[in-house]
Design goal:
Low-confidence stretches: 245-257, 278-282, 284-288, 380-385
Helix content: 40-55%
Structural class: alpha/beta
Order of helices and strands: EEHEEEEHEHHHHHHEHEEHEHEEHHHH
């Protein structure tokens, strides 16, 4: 357990916004600091898990800093399993900053990013998967991402990982027992070992299959709407986002820069980029916009190549297609309300996904979303039917465990001595332990918790 006391502002601070701001203090001196700074009138008891009403004042001048509430959470019944106090002040900037400064003057130090959660992990309050799930929950951009983070916080990832690690430890114990006490024990049941390894590998692969889903839930998709000027890209964005993010006129080249909109489709956060019409431009400003459009298309996870149903597939469309055809692509034929149903333009047969829209009439948006989800589901990102989704660090550790377990299988197949079996078994056990934090280095902990906000 840590010996020093840390403090930080635990809520987002925005000028003239927010009704409440919280200063959190954790450590051996948390309560004594609160007693020096907080005056609770009357006979309010300073007991754990009680909220006191009163005033924060300067310990020397006795000047009142803020009218506030004080929440006491004594060890071990707290987030960090240390004594924790929270000053619930008025929102804004000045009150919480003054209260934090007083806490620092009374002996606390400013917490590092994620240090409260790090202490919760070090003190056995959370395992590492739960700690990472807290960061995911704070940063969730969709209800599905929040649910996945909550599943991790509830131990739905840690539990199967611990079971797999326990099974590997059991196998290792059986193998090492035969090495150390070969004459006193019956021969090792090799079929049992093979069966246990096959079962563990199957579960490891199922958990690993959630990695792409996890990446989608956490970072989302970047989708670029590209095409010639005046094909309806901005109308498509406005209809899709149900807002007027982009200017829509009959004049080609209205959009001079990349316009962004944030959406959620099927639980997946999507950053939509409405780009300037791609064409040879004489105007210097439009040239910059066109170049940014090309860059957006090259870096997008998915391209919506939009064409005009009336104009058909033009040489300019073909030129744009040649620039983006190596990216995942959906062809959007817009303005279909202005042509006969059997008069739709021809397009390259290599394009697998097609959506017909009349963006100005808000038609075809549902079909567009379903097609985007179809490309995601069929694009090697469909995860197993599990509540949780692993992150990049966890995926790397599980991949290491999978490789080690496969090597054990190969070692058995090659009829190598039992000593060789234990080498990769230990590597698999270590890799699984890195996921929950049972085997972890200080540098990895620093890397994980540095991504947290300071008050968490």
């Amino acid at each position: 357990m840590q010996t020093d006391t840390i403090a930080a502002i635990a809520t987002a601070i925005v000028p003239q916004q927010g009704s409440v701001g919280i200063v959190r203090v954790s450590g051996a001196e948390a309560v004594s600091i609160a007693q020096k700074l907080f005056h609770a009138p009357g006979s309010q008891p300073w007991e754990s898990h009680r909220i006191l009403y009163g005033y924060v004042h300067h310990p020397q001048s006795r000047a009142v800093v803020d009218e506030a509430l004080l929440l006491l959470m004594l060890a071990p019944r707290s987030y960090t399993r240390e004594d924790v106090v929270e000053f619930h002040c008025h929102g804004g900037i000045m009150a919480v900053q003054q209260v934090l400064q007083l806490c620092l003057e009374q002996g606390a130090r400013l917490a590092q990013p994620g240090e409260f959660t790090l202490r919760a992990f070090l003190n056995g309050r959370l395992d590492l998967t739960q700690a990472e799930s807290i960061a995911d929950l704070v940063g969730a951009q969709s209800p599905q991402a929040a649910q996945s983070a909550l599943a991790g916080l509830q131990g739905k990832l840690a539990h199967p990982i611990r079971q797999l690690r326990s099974t590997c430890l059991d196998i290792l114990a059986e193998v090492e027992a035969r090495i150390d006490f070969e004459d006193d024990l019956p021969p090792l049941d090799e079929d049992w070992v093979k069966g246990q390894l096959a079962q563990v590998l199957a579960e490891v692969e199922q958990i690993l299959s959630t990695a792409d889903r996890g990446a989608l839930l956490r970072t989302g998709l970047k989708v670029a709407i590209v095409g010639r000027p005046n094909v309806g890209k901005s109308s498509l964005l406005n209809a899709w986002s149900r807002s007027d993010r982009a200017i829509v006129t009959d004049l080609p080249g209205t959009t001079r820069d990349v316009v962004e909109s944030q959406l959620v489709v099927g639980g997946i956060p999507i950053q939509v980029l409405d780009t300037a019409g791609i064409r040879e431009a004489a105007d210097q400003v439009e040239k910059i916009g066109v170049e940014r459009s090309r860059l957006a298309a090259q870096t997008a996870d998915l391209v919506l190549l939009t064409i005009d149903a009336q104009a058909g597939w033009t040489d300019a469309d073909q030129e744009i297609y040649d620039q983006v055809k190596h990216r995942p692509l959906i062809l959007v034929i817009n303005k279909v309300d202005l042509v006969e149903p059997d008069a739709l333009p021809r397009y390259p047969v290599a394009i697998s996904y097609l959506v017909k829209t009349a963006a100005a009439q808000n038609q075809g948006i549902d079909e567009l979303e379903q097609t985007i989800l179809a490309t995601v589901q069929l694009g090697a990102v469909q995860a197993a039917n599990l509540d949780f989704a692993i992150n990049q660090r966890q995926a790397a550790a599980i991949t290491s465990a999978k490789t080690a377990l496969q090597q054990v299988q190969q070692t058995i197949a090659d009829q190598m001595p039992l000593d060789f079996w234990t080498i990769d078994l230990r590597l698999a056990i270590q890799a699984l332990g890195e996921i929950t934090g049972e085997e972890i280095t200080e540098s990895v902990l620093d890397q994980i918790f540095s991504r947290f906000c300071i008050g968490k």
